[in-house]
Amino acid sequence: MKAIPGFIAVGVAITAVIGIGAAVASAAEPTGGDVLGSLVENYSYPGVPADLAPVLADRKVELTSGDGHIVLNSVVRVDENCPARVAGAGRIVVVAGPQLDGQALTRSVVEPADTIQLCFDVLAASGQLSLKVPAVYELDGRTAAPAGQTVKSVAKIQPEGGQETVVPLSSKNTIQVGKGINEANADATLLELVVTGA
What we know:
It is a single chain. By secondary structure, this protein is α+β, with helices and mostly antiparallel strands. The chain folds into 2 domains: 1-30; 36-197, no CATH class. It is 15% helix and 35% strand. The protein has 2 helices and 9 strands. Strands 1, 2, 3, 4, 5, 6, 7, 8 and 9 form a 9-stranded antiparallel β-sheet that branches. Strand 6 (151-159) and strand 7 (165-168) form a beta hairpin. The longest helix is centred in the N-terminal third of the chain and has 23 residues, at 6-28.
């Protein structure tokens, strides 16, 4: 058997190392439905379109941390529909009005552009997202369950100057909080969304 010249052997070894490295890197990259995986979220995290960052910053919305199973899909005006969700995903919609620094909200003088809907996709039967959404007045979990799943969903809310409270979301009705219950109420801040298999 002929000896392999030294430079050929080195070349083969380098090629093998590069091939192994590429395979490891490829295996480490998230794919398909696992694009977000386990992550720490803020308004520049992967998966939120860059054009949403100014809207979130302007509204003082913070997406703090989560397991990647409840993700922000879009932000739209209250008189618009949320865009299509990821195939098979559930949907939670959070409605937030303008921050009026303690003043009573008079819906008749609030323009649609002043009130936003944050549209969250629910990608699994269990998920958690810590966030901060000021001036929340309505939560819609009627379609929170992903396809073929049954889930319970809850939201942690804190009224301005009040105690945190956990509010169960309904599969039949939207839930009013803060000024959504009474226009004279203090603003309520959404702190957490949690979905668990039923």
